[in-house]
Amino acid sequence: MNTTELESTVRAMTARGKGLLAADESSGTIKKRFDTIGLESTETNRRDYRQMLFTTDALEQAVSGVILFDETIRQSTDDGRTLTSILQGKGIVPGIKVDKGTIAMGPGSAEKVTEGHDGLAKRYEEYYQLGARFAKWRAVYTISDQLPSWRNIRLNAQGLARYAAITQQSGLVPIVEPEVLMDGAHTLERCEDVTTAVLNAVFEALALEGVQLELMVLKPNMVISGKDCPVQASAEQVAAATVRCFSRTVPAAVPGIMFLSGGQSDAQATENLNAINALSAHHPWTFSFSYGRALQAPALKAWGGKKENVAAGQQALAKRARLNGAACRAEYQAAMEQAA
Ligand code: 13P
User: Is the pLDDT assigned to residue 307 strictly greater than 90?
Assistant: First the structure.
């Protein structure tokens, strides 16, 4: 393992005032996103969309890294430059999603485990050549009155930890993503309990695998009310519960906690991140973003799949990136949403 390279990658990823753009939607997920603008999900349309995102002017001012999907890391722009070289040219670190999605934990189970360990070290040899310097693996947990089961929490923790160990041994920085889903009517308190149990299991498994905590990034959910909970917690309540949960479970050696947006609206994800940073000046981690939908949704809408709207799409992305960058410094204000 080249520790020096991993250290500089992790430092670049967690640079103050910056976060990650998650643009690693699988073919199935990007189709769902394109359906919302009535665009067919062809390889060319997917390439055009990602080209628009990555060529956004000054993106690097608030984006330190981009998570790519296997297809995208191999694609090139209209003028023949690879999409990764566009990012590298801006000083943005390319990363790669390596999990192969989720399957039912057992016959008839509502719970899921994540696949993709087979051949992973071999796949990294190619991804490294293609420019990837970090990777991502996502595990998902469903909240209900009975779930998640202890078995699901343990199996997903083992899977994340095995992946993280292979990733570091292959010379890339692992993003460890345990996502407690916001689907359901559960309270903020229930989300905090489940997230605490999940993170305790994840860090126990990471220790067992000998993963170097200094050389990884955690990508968790925020502690928030379930989507259908009648009482929605305020940003200040979310921040207090989130920071308390992480203080109790995440070792200080972890350099960065970069949240997923998970279905929050774009403004809500920014407001919550800002409130977390407003609370957490004395904590050891960088609290930042690794958003997919909350960065991309307005850009996708403004673009609408049309060449003449590329500039509008880029403006929408640049704005969300800028506002989330401000939230990393606790400098975001709702009034900034009105400015261009
Ligand atoms: P969202 O921010 O849309 O949840 O996506 C982040 C991600 O990478 C999910 O794996």
Answer: yes
